[in-house]
Amino acid sequence: MAPKSDSAEGIVLNFVNEQNRPLNSQNAADSLQKFNLKKAAVQKALDNLADSGKISFKEYGKQKIYVARQDQFDIPNNEELNQMKEENTKLQQLLDEQKKAIAGVEGEIKALQSNLTLEEVQAKQVKLGKEVKQMEEKLIKLRQGVTLVSPEERQAVEKMYMDTVNQWRRRKRMFKDIWDAITENSPKNLNEFKEELGIEYDEDVGVSLQSYGDLMQYGKKRARAH
Question: Which parts form a coiled-coil structure per UniProt (predicted)?
Fold first, then answer.
C-alpha cells in the first residue's frame, strides 16, 4: 500500500522519485526543510521505504545511499531516444533564437536609455545658446578693436617670455663654452661624438633662438606703435 502523499513517507517517496539520483539522508533532509521535516523523520521515512521495497538503497560503510526504483520508469527505446534528441536540438535552436531576440531588445533599451530626454535636450539647448552668445560678444569686441587682454597681463606675459629667451641664450652660451673646451684637442669627429653623447643642437630639432629673439623685438616695436 502506497503511503499518503502528505505523510512524511509520502513526501520523501515523491522527492526520491522526482530526483531519480543517488541521495543520502542529509541531501534529502536539506531539500525537504520546506516541509518542516527534521533529519530524524527523513531518515526514518527513508529506512521504512527501503524496507518495504518502495525505494532501493546500498550501504557504503556507515552511510546509506538511496535511489528510486528504476523498474517503475519507462525506459525509451532507440527510436524514442533519437526522437528526443531531435526535439532537444530543436528546443536548443529555439532557445538560441530567443536569446538573440532578448539581446536585441536589451540593446534597443540601452540605446533608448542613452538618448536625452526632452527636458535634457531643452536644457542643453539653453546652455549652448548662452555659450554662443558669449562667443559672439567676444567676436564683436575683437572686430571693434577692443583689447581683451589688460596691459598688466600683457606685460606679465612679455616679461616671462623675455626671461625664458634670455635664459635660453645664457644656457646656449654656457654649453658652447663647455663643448669647445672638451672638443678643442679631441681627435674624434665632432658630429659622431655629438651623436654618441645624444646631444642635439637647436637646429637639429627645428628651432632657432634668433627667431624667438626677433619675435620679442617685434613685440616691443608693436607695443610702442600702439
Answer: 77-138
